[in-house]
Amino acid sequence: MGSSAGRLTVFTLLLGALACSDSPAGPGPADSACQRVANDLLDHPPPALLLAARRTALARSIGSGVVLLAADAPNADPQNSGYRGDSNLFYLAGIDVPGSWLMLVVRGGQVDSAVLFLPEPATSPTAPVRVTEVTGADRVRCVAMLGASARRQLPAAGLPLHLHSQNPAFTDTLVQALKAAPGVEVRELSGPLAALRLVKDSAEIARLTRASDITARAIVDAVAVIRPGRSEADVANAILAGYATRGAPRASFPSIVASAGNALTLHYNANGRTFTGGELVLMDVGAEFGRYAGDVTRTFPVNGKFSDRQRALYELVLGAHQAAIAAVRPGVTLAQLEQTSREYLATRSGILCGSRTCDQYFVHLLSHWLGLNVHDVGSRTTPLAAGMVLTIEPGIYLPADSIGIRIEDDVLVTASGGLVLSAVAPRTVTDIAALFAARAQTGGGFTGSPAGLRADRRK
After folding, report:
1. Which of 40, 100, 227, 459 is the most interior residue, by most CB within 10 Å?
2. Integer distance in angstroms from the first to the last C-alpha of the chain?
3. pLDDT per residue over 340-364, tens digit each?
4. What is the second-level CATH architecture of the domain 202-442?
5. Structure pTM?
């Protein structure tokens, strides 16, 4: 916790932000320097009209208030060295500029003003872009203006203050300072934002479709280096290269390439083991495209062919996977989908898992939401609706056999069911064999779909 002086400083900055943004006097003397930013800092912003529609939807959800969002957030993707700002600010403003802030003044369910506060660039940006044109914001001000004036006190606006307290820019120090100020009502913004982000608009669906497809194709590429004597690192590098060549410069999470017993560790990412014949390799990987995450898992035999036991276990998991996808439709819950998958494993496992049914070796959840974050926001109890995107990923993990098998796809909920976005990466035993056979025929340079690989995405 900071000192009392620190709390007063933060509170003064906040009051200054409100005073400057709500002033009819227009931009401050230095604001013109912050009107443009480098094009590469915008990171594929969505269309300005869509951004405005998202802000309007939030306004209708909260009714009235002052919304403050900051760009700076913990980097949830430690394998990526580049800056990645707060997903909520990107969702509403389409920018990824370190140190930036968004303030919305909302009255009667409408956005009265949308003001961006940006840091003054150290040098003139190359290929500059006017921020108001890209984001649809009413004004852009320099972030230094946050502390320019404390003429107004927040209660004078007569509006509650909405903060996303999980962002480190809104630490406990700040929240406590706001709560201590007379007449200030602080409301948590994470719930309304999560509800909005759960149902994707057309731009989000397009980006998620692309991220999932890039991920699936990179897995297909990696088959070129899956063989005895190669390593988990070789596969991980091939997958990252597959992302880059398709316009996805970074992963959405650290790549998991786990062979043999390493697959028993769900989030294994050391990726250091050399393959031997007769074992399986699990690849749980994801490309990020336009800030949206892919997340796809495939489990392949290192030598291109399953043993009889491996095949039986694999097809059991595949059946549970297909049963869950077939059950995707509006109104169904994640819990119901998981029950469908677990019942499939329980009723069809026979003696594959010994004296216990195989569902008892399914040790994680079936699904999570997918979007701007790989484990995206949203309540797990919300029934499915058209426009939501989720993963379906059953698995079986048998320590006695050093076997972990997981199959995961990204699924868009439509009015009539589930649409698999990542189906270009083969799932059936037949299609996996065809993929490895195509690799052998091309000398390891396979770049397309093997003959007979089904192209349909609706299951």
Report:
1. 100
2. 53
3. 999 999 999 999 999 999 999 999 9
4. Alpha-Beta Complex (3.90)
5. 0.87
